[in-house]
Design a protein that fits this description.
single chain, 7-stranded parallel beta sheet, 6-stranded parallel beta sheet
C-alpha cells in the first residue's frame, strides 16, 4: 500500500486515491477479473496504468478509437512510462518497430481489429512474452458495436485461453463510464469474465444542470445554439451526429463571428491533435464535434456542453455530458430536441433502427449457407456479411468461439434479433416529465439512488 501511494504521488502527482481506485488497482494486481463502471472523469485509466507499471511484463489495452489511444500513450510517454500503440494509420516501418520492441513495453494500446491481426497475434502468443492482463477500455463499445458495426469485439472473450497457453492466467478487466445492467451482463458474458469483482459508481453529478430545449425548425435550432453559446462563459463543446453536420455548422458559426473548429474521425491525427491543443489552451472557446471527441481529452474547466442533435443512445449522452464540470464547479448540459413540428430527430432514429433491422434480416438469410464450423477469415472472404451473422449467432447463444479465429455453430434454428442498440431509452428521456437525473440513475441501474430523488438542478426540478 505505501508503495502504491508513492507511485501515485511520484508519477501522477496525487496524494490520495479517489474511491474506488485503490480497490480496483488491488484487484488487478491480485489477478482478479473485474468490471468497472466509473463516471466520465472518474480516473479509470490510472486504475490499469498503475498496476501495469508495478509488474514486470505487458498489459494489453484494447481501445476503440485512435484519438483515445494517442492521448493516453502520449501522456504515459511524457511520464517516462514505456508505452506504445499500434493502429492502421502507422506506417509498416513504425508497426514493425513497435512489434520488435514489444517485450520492453509495459502497456500496448491497440484496437480489437489490430489485436487479432495475424502479425500482432503471432507476436503476442509467443510464450516467452510475459503478459499480465487484457484491459478492455470503453467496454460498452463491445455491446454497442459488437453485433453489427465492429463484430471483432465479440471474439475478445476467446483470446484469454490462447494467450494464457504456457504462461500464467491472464487477467481481464473491463472499464466503462456508461453501462446499464443489461450491458454489464453482456460484457461479463461475452468477455467470459470469471467471478469478476464489480465496481459501480453513480453517474450523478450535483454540479451539472441538465436542460432540454425543443426547437421547431432547423433555423430555430441554430438560433437556440447561438443563445446558449452567448449565455455561457468559459469553454464548451457542441456535439453533432455526423461529420457533415460538424463541418456545415462550423462554417455557419464562423460567419456569425465565432472562432471554432470541426472535429471528427475523418481528420488526420495531426489535425485532431492540433484542434485538441487549441481547445485545451483556450485558443478555441468551443469545438463542434462528433462522438470521436472527448475520449481521453480532459479539460476540467469545461463549463457547458450542447447537444445540437439528440444522441441515439443514452450511453452516448451520459458519456458526452460528462465532459462538463469535472472540476466540481457549476456546469450545464443543454440538449436541443425536435418538437412535433420538426421531423429531424425522428428521421435519424428511424434510419438507425431500419439499418439494424436490415442487417439482422440479411444475417438471418445468410446463416443457413455458413459452414457449421470454420475459420472467420476464410468464411468472411467467401460470404459477405459473415462476420455480422456470426456475431449475432454468438449473442443469441447459438455459437461459441473455440479461439478468436475459429467458431462452432450449435444451432441455426432460433430467429435472430439485435438487442442492444435501442433508441427507446433516449426517446423516453426527452419526453419525461420527472427529474432528469432520476431518469439517468434508473437507466443505469441505480434504482435505490433514484428513489424519492429530485436533483434541484434540471429543467423539470427547477
Amino acid at each position: 500500500m505505501p508503495l502504491l501511494h508513492d507511485r501515485l504521488k511520484q508519477i501522477w502527482g496525487y496524494s490520495e486515491f479517489r474511491f474506488p481506485q485503490f480497490e480496483i488497482v488491488q484487484a488487478i494486481l491480485a489477478r482478479q477479473d473485474a468490471l468497472i463502471v466509473l463516471p466520465t472523469g472518474g480516473g479509470k485509466s490510472l486504475c490499469f496504468q498503475l498496476p501495469a507499471i508495478m509488474q514486470q511484463g505487458l498489459t494489453i489495452v484494447v481501445s476503440p478509437l485512435v484519438a483515445l489511444m494517442e492521448n493516453q500513450v502520449q501522456e504515459l510517454q511524457q511520464k517516462r512510462i514505456p508505452a506504445a500503440l499500434l493502429h492502421s494509420e502507422l506506417s509498416s516501418w513504425q508497426r514493425k518497430q513497435v512489434l520488435n520492441a514489444i517485450a520492453t513495453h509495459r502497456l500496448l494500446y491497440l484496437s480489437p481489429e489490430t489485436l487479432l491481426s495475424p502479425p500482432v497475434w503471432q507476436r503476442l502468443i509467443n510464450p516467452e512474452l510475459k503478459i499480465n492482463s487484457l484491459i478492455i477500455d470503453e467496454a460498452h463499445c463491445l455491446a454497442q458495436w459488437g453485433e453489427t458495426f465492429r463484430p471483432v469485439y465479440y471474439r475478445l472473450g476467446a483470446a484469454r485461453s490462447t494467450l494464457s497457453n504456457h504462461r500464467n492466467r491472464i487477467t481481464i478487466a473491463a472499464f466503462t463510464a456508461t453501462a446499464n445492467p443489461a450491458t454489464q451482463a453482456t460484457i461479463q458474458r461475452l468477455l467470459q469474465l470469471e467471478a469478476p469483482q464489480c465496481f459501480r459508481v453513480s453517474p450523478y453529478r450535483a454540479n451539472l444542470t441538465l436542460k432540454v430545449q425543443p426547437v421547431s425548425t432547423p433555423r430555430q435550432r441554430r438560433q437556440k445554439l447561438l443563445e446558449v453559446i452567448r449565455a455561457q462563459t468559459g469553454s464548451g463543446l457542441v456535439y453533432v451526429r455526423s461529420r457533415r453536420d460538424a463541418e456545415e455548422l462550423v462554417e455557419w458559426l464562423t460567419q456569425q463571428g465565432h472562432r471554432t473548429a470541426a472535429y471528427h474521425a475523418g481528420l488526420k491525427s495531426t489535425d485532431r491533435r492540433q484542434i485538441e491543443q487549441a481547445w485545451l489552451n483556450d485558443q478555441l472557446r468551443f469545438v463542434v464535434a462528433t462522438c470521436a471527441f472527448g475520449l481521453g481529452v480532459n479539460k476540467a474547466a469545461t463549463r457547458w456542453v450542447v447537444h445540437y442533435h439528440a444522441p441515439l443512445l443514452m450511453s452516448e449522452y451520459v458519456q458526452e455530458i460528462g465532459r462538463a464540470g469535472r472540476d466540481g464547479k457549476a456546469a450545464i448540459a443543454v440538449l436541443l430536441k425536435s418538437s412535433w413540428l420538426d421531423l429531424e430527430d425522428r428521421q435519424r432514429w428511424q434510419f438507425f433502427e431500419t439499418q439494424e433491422r436490415n442487417q439482422a434480416i440479411k444475417a438471418q438469410q445468410l446463416i443457413p449457407k455458413l459452414p457449421q464450423q470454420g475459420n472467420i477469415d476464410v468464411v468472411a472472404r467467401e460470404f459477405k456479411g459473415a462476420a455480422i451473422a456470426l456475431s449475432l449467432l454468438h449473442n443469441a447463444n447459438q455459437l461459441t468461439w473455440t479461439d478468436p479465429f475459429h467458431y462452432e455453430i450449435q444451432s441455426k434454428q432460433k430467429r435472430l434479433k439485435t438487442s442492444h442498440n435501442s433508441t427507446q431509452s433516449m426517446k423516453d428521456y426527452l419526453s419525461t416529465k420527472g427529474c432528469r437525473w432520476r431518469f439517468v440513475l434508473r437507466s443505469f441501474g441505480f434504482e435505490q439512488d433514484a428513489e424519492n430523488f429530485a436533483c434541484g438542478h434540471c429543467d423539470h426540478c427547477r
